[in-house]
Design a protein that fits this description.
The complex is a heterotrimer of chains A (383), B (325) and C (360).
Chain A (H helix, E strand, L loop, with lengths): L3 H8 L5 H9 L2 H10 L2 H18 L1 H4 L20 E6 L2 E15 L6 E24 L3 E10 L18 H37 L1 H15 L3 H9 L8 H32 L2 H8 L4 H38 L10 H5 L5 H6 L5 H23 L6
Antiparallel strand pairs in A: 1-2, 2-3, 3-4
Chain B lengths: L1 H27 L5 H8 L6 H11 L5 H15 L4 E2 L4 E2 H36 L4 H15 L2 H15 L19 H38 L2 H8 L4 H7 L1 H31 L4 H10 L3 H29 L1 H5 L1
Antiparallel strand pairs in B: 1-2
Helix pairs in contact in B: 1-13, 5-6, 5-8, 5-11, 5-13, 6-8, 7-8, 7-11, 8-11, 11-12, 11-13, 12-13
Chain C lengths: L9 H7 L4 E14 L2 E14 L3 E5 L6 H9 L6 E11 L5 E3 L8 H6 L4 E4 L13 H12 L4 H14 L5 H4 L9 H13 L5 E5 L7 H18 L2 E6 L2 H7 L2 E6 L2 E7 H6 L4 H8 L51 E3 L3 E3 L8 H9 L2
Helix pairs in contact in C: 4-5, 4-7, 5-7, 7-8
The chains are: A alpha+beta (383), B mainly alpha (325), C alpha/beta (360).
């Protein structure tokens, strides 16, 4: 009767009798999936996340141009909007295109402004042929998802930066670095977190105390100044790939504490669960207990925590690179791109340079919603 | 209570040692000792005697732990943080006002976060699943997702583009290097709201979620029903019991909000050009002015550790169960 | 009224009004409107309680006992609400009030709560605030309902703690709930509940979470206090042993309804409803032959969304009549010495069907 007082309705499983019959035979992952599926926002966020990683993997295909392609004649071009219908003498027809620009130079300030010129038409298309690239070093192609239908037309959907580089393409290439920094950083954090959190939760006592104190100390430190201090020590002469790994290691050195806490907490509560005690009384070996009985019930929670930890990594990388002490050009990440928009003057000239920021917010939002949904679904036996 | 505070302060010692080691590590990390960079950067030649004196002072020829000891004991005994060669002044001359301003901004932001987050969190929990609740949730998520510096950039752009004014800084130009007067303090107050809002956004969003979740937990507890069965009015009931209990974790949240604030203010301050520790640290790191950088990291860390300590004591004071542990 | 806590003064009132009905619950339905559907937690319950008497409500988990108790005080949690029925309660001043009609957040019901009707809950740990002292919670009730100063309230609180048998009452007043044992917490809850001398105490399984010795102590305490004050007690339990010990009247509930009600002797010695009989048969008896298997009710309580048609008990009933029990919803019929039973076996035209049934 204890639950009846406050949560009576929640005790009730899903409505129809057939659904109930399925619940009986479903395994834990099916239950999690069913529960997660009900969470519409999380489903949507999951789709966005998958899309972002797809963009990261196939950046060359999604981007109209290569990350380094520049054009001195087209600097600071504002975003060009696609028009789907063209008015011809024969009436309107479906012809996706953008209009070209005329450059006007202010006679007094010599400031260049672009004025839309309706008479110039650059057709735009999907699956167009553009610059050649080698996808994953496996095969060479020149197929791009979107771009100028005629190779060589200046089509910059989100404008260009001070060197005439396409902001859209660079943001797409930035996805690869920024999203993977999150993933790799969390991977390293997870490794540290699971090992240390597991040790802490499993052995308890002195070791637990020591690890917990360490975590407390690390958590009470202001991370960004620390990151700044440590990453500033990365030699400028290092090759980009090494800088990339150094930064990820730095991020995870401080980021593992949350995951370690989570793992330890789960471990402690699982250790006293009846099914674990029962297994122990049945004489199952310790390793077996951990691998067969405890790990499966922890995995779902850990996946949720990992998802929630990735946005933090992305934000940290963005912040460091934005300051110029994280990743450095020629590496393209969202943070590196935002460096172009570091002061009001450059934003005032070209507000579209903030577009990588939109990508950051989208990615972080999506992963937060996804993680939230996963966390709710992680414990399918709880109402 | 006294025992509890004593124990907490005792725990502080290892933390401080770890922090000082990390800060010292930052000082030591760049290749070559700092004298080399000092000599290479100095405009006029430094005579050998002076170099030797400095070498002696920092113990540069001695093993690393001796150097560490000299540095730490100098700070503890004499308040000597070493010299900043970029500014050619003792570090301690440069940092105190900036540290003070960092503290002021962080505290203001903390108050802002609480004042905004608690009522909204309560509203959101009490009106669970209403349009208002959904709105709060969505806005909260967005607030969490926007990096501080991006928000600062966007707000600066909006102010520049639509109001034609350049925001940023903590003081009007005429007060930047002025001595502390009432006018200067008032001038600061008129500038501080922007960094406070920018810094506070993600913390507010986070605390609203914490408050809402805690309160929802508490609202379904039996003691709420018991108090209701005693004849308490809904409003009094709400504030006396569940809100009171739900506030406890919020007090302990200071322990992670405060470091995050100090941490986040580093970058926001650079973007907004505030006279806090952030931009100074940034510049010192770029110039490899390592004693300044290390000292700043040390002091900012100590600042957050003290903040955490205060929040722990506060929590023990309002929640009698804590002291038992 | 005079605050004389050691000798509760309403005893005299109760004597004069003996045999008068204090609480009458008529056909109350409390439903929970969830996303998945409507849960009819209480679906037509009737009970009546006389002054100074103890009424026990028994039934399995999920039969709606607690929701019934909560409905009386109007503290049913959302998304539940009373959809129909009457809860008539006679106030101290003699006026009748239908609690089902009151606004659950309004002044009228708040005046009843704690003053006229008090409630204690199953888990004494969670029904006390973790961050307030025992004393502050007792004094809260006193200050809320009685015209006394803080000092007087404090004195009264101490004497209430003494009354419920908490040693060193003066010190324990400033104790937090986590500093007390389970039994002491429940005593403190009782002290809070009785601080304003209510006419009715609703006890929702107050002993379930306690160990057996403590259970007995708490039951004794409630009984002693009842005798001293003359209050009525509505006791919710699933423990038939407790019922036998303290009840004057009994209501047996199944799936949100009263299936049988009557005096305790009649229920125990001459149960009429098949469910009541089954419940009584499933009590282990000392001295029974060890070969006998303990009777256990067949089937399980149906799913809340899946209420059986007709008599809700028919799928588990040993005396199920095909085409009758699963189609006709039984009314309450008089049966035996003083019971009322919701079972078609006792309907006026029952013989007819019984004969039909036994024809072949």
């Amino acid at each position: 009767m204890s639950q009846a007082h406050a949560k009576l309705p929640e005790d009730a499983p899903s409505a129809d009798a057939r659904g109930e019959a399925r619940v009986v035979v479903a395994n834990q992952w099916q239950l999690i999936w069913w529960k997660f599926r009900k969470h519409r926002l999380a489903m949507f966020a999951g789709a966005v996340t998958i899309f972002l990683y797809a963009v990261a993997v196939f950046a060359e295909f999604f981007a109209p141009y290569a990350a380094g392609t520049y054009s001195a004649a087209h600097i600071f071009i504002p975003p060009q909007s696609i028009k789907l219908i063209q008015q011809t003498e024969a009436g309107p027809r479906f012809y996706p295109h953008i209009n070209g620009f005329k450059v006007q130079v202010d006679p007094e300030s010599y400031k260049r402004t672009y004025v839309i010129d309706e008479s110039i038409i650059y057709p735009v298309g999907l699956f167009v042929r553009g610059e050649e690239y080698e996808l994953w070093g496996l095969f060479t192609t020149d197929l791009h998802l979107i771009g100028a239908a005629r190779f060589g037309d200046p089509v910059y959907l989100l404008g260009t930066d001070r060197l005439g580089r396409d902001v859209l393409s660079r943001t797409i290439y930035g996805t690869r670095v920024s999203m993977s920094v999150g993933l790799v950083g969390v991977g390293l954090s997870l490794l540290l977190g699971v090992i240390l959190g597991g040790i802490s939760g499993y052995y308890g006592g002195m070791i637990d105390n020591l690890i917990q104190r360490t975590i407390e100390i690390l958590r009470s430190l202001p991370t960004i100044p620390l990151w700044m201090g440590l990453s500033a020590a990365i030699p400028l002469t290092w090759p980009p790939v090494r800088v990339y790994f150094a930064i990820t290691v730095l991020l995870s050195l401080i980021g593992w504490t949350t995951l370690a806490r989570e793992v330890r907490g789960r471990f402690l509560s699982l250790k006293t669960e009846d099914f674990v005690i029962a297994a122990r009384l049945d004489g199952v070996r310790e390793m077996q207990i951990i691998v067969r009985h405890m790990a499966p019930s922890m995995t779902s929670h850990i996946i949720a925590s990992v998802t929630l930890a990735i946005p933090g990594m992305i934000l940290a990388e963005t912040a460091l690179s934005f300051l110029g002490i994280g990743l450095r050009p020629p590496v393209v990440s969202w943070g590196v791109l935002l460096q172009e928009a570091q002061n009001v003057r450059s934003i005032a000239t070209a507000p579209w340079l903030l577009f990588p920021g939109v990508a950051v917010v989208t990615a972080v939002l999506a992963m937060n919603f996804l993680g939230d949904g996963l966390r709710d679904a992680a414990d399918p036996y709880q109402a | 209570m006294i025992w509890y505070i004593g124990r907490r302060i005792l725990y502080l010692i290892p933390t401080l040692i770890v922090v000082s080691i990390i800060a010292f590590l930052v000082i030591q990390l760049p290749p070559g000792d700092f004298l080399a960079s000092l000599i290479s950067k100095a405009e006029e030649t430094i005579d050998q005697a002076q170099v030797d004196a400095l070498r002696e002072r920092y113990g540069l020829d001695e093993p690393i732990y001796v150097q560490y000891w000299k540095w730490v004991s100098g700070i503890v005994a004499r308040g000597d943080f070493g010299d900043s060669f970029e500014w050619n002044r003792p570090v301690s001359d440069l940092i105190w006002e900036r540290l003070g301003l960092t503290m002021v901004i962080s505290l203001f932001t903390l108050v802002f976060i609480w004042v905004v987050a608690i009522p909204i969190g309560i509203y959101s929990a009490v009106k669970q699943y209403t349009i208002g609740d959904y709105l709060v949730t969505v806005v909260g998520f967005i607030g969490l997702a926007i990096p501080n510096f991006l928000l600062a950039l966007v707000l600066m752009y909006i102010a520049f583009r639509y109001f034609g004014q350049s925001v940023g800084g903590l003081f009007s130009p005429e007060y930047i290097d002025a001595d502390w007067t009432l006018e200067r303090a008032l001038d600061m107050l008129s500038h501080i709201w922007l960094p406070v809002v920018i810094l506070g956004t993600s913390g507010t969003a986070a605390l609203i979620r914490v408050m809402r979740a805690n309160l929802l937990d508490e609202l379904s507890k039996l003691y709420v029903d018991a108090a209701r069965a005693r004849g308490l009015s809904e409003l009094r009931l709400l504030f006396k019991y569940p809100v009171r209990v739900a506030l406890n974790p919020l007090v302990s949240a200071v322990a992670w909000v405060f470091p995050a604030l100090v941490s986040g203010s580093a970058i926001t301050s650079i973007v907004l050009n505030l006279q806090t520790t952030g931009p100074l640290l940034y510049r010192s790191l770029q110039a490899q002015d390592m004693y300044l950088a290390g000292s700043l990291i040390l002091l900012v860390s100590i600042l957050t550790i003290i903040g955490t300590l205060v929040s722990d004591i506060l929590l023990a004071w309002i929640d009698p169960r804590i002291q038992l542990q | 009224m005079q605050p004389t806590p050691t000798r509760l003064d309403s005893a005299a009132d109760a004597m004069s009004g003996a045999n008068e009905t204090l609480l009458q619950v008529r056909d109350v339905k409390t439903h929970f409107f969830t996303d998945e559907g409507v849960v009819k937690a209480v679906d037509g319950v009737n009970l009546s309680l006389k002054r100074g008497q103890t009424l026990c409500v028994v039934g399995e988990s999920g039969c709606g006992k607690s929701v019934t108790a909560r409905s009386i005080l109007r503290i049913v949690p959302a998304p539940g609400r009373i959809v129909s029925g009457e809860i008539n309660f006679q106030q101290r001043n003699g006026a009748m009030i239908d609690l089902a009609q009151t606004n659950p957040k309004g002044r009228a019901i708040r005046h009843i709560r704690g003053r006229e009707i008090s409630m204690i809950f199953q888990e004494p740990m969670s029904s006390l605030s973790p961050v307030h002292t025992i004393g502050s919670q007792i004094m809260e009730a006193i200050l809320l309902h009685l015209p006394v100063t803080r000092q007087e309230a404090r004195k009264r609180a101490v004497s209430m703690l003494e009354l419920v048998g908490i040693p060193r009452a003066g010190e324990q007043l400033d104790a937090y709930s986590f500093e007390l044992s389970g039994g002491m917490r429940q005593r403190a809850m009782i002290a809070i509940a009785l601080a304003c001398e209510p006419q009715l105490l609703i006890a929702d399984e107050p002993t379930t979470a306690l160990d057996v010795t403590t259970q007995a102590n708490i039951l004794d305490l409630i009984r002693d206090l009842q005798q001293a004050s003359g209050m009525s007690v509505l006791f919710i339990t699933h423990d038939l042993g407790v019922v036998a010990e303290i009840a004057d009247e009994v209501v047996v509930m199944y799936l949100g309804r009263d299936v049988e009600s009557g005096p305790v002797d009649a229920i125990f010695h001459d149960p009429k409803h098949p469910y009541t009989r089954a419940l009584l048969q499933s009590i282990p008896r000392y001295g029974s032959r060890d070969r006998d298997r303990l009777y256990s009710l067949k089937g399980t309580v149906p799913h809340p969304f899946d209420r059986p048609s007709g008599c809700p008990f028919h799928p588990r009933c040993d005396e199920f009549i095909q085409e009758r029990c699963n189609t006709v919803d039984p009314d309450r019929y008089a049966a035996g010495s003083a019971q009322s039973v919701r079972c078609l076996l006792y309907s006026p035209d029952a013989d007819l069907y019984a004969k039909e049934d036994s024809k072949p």
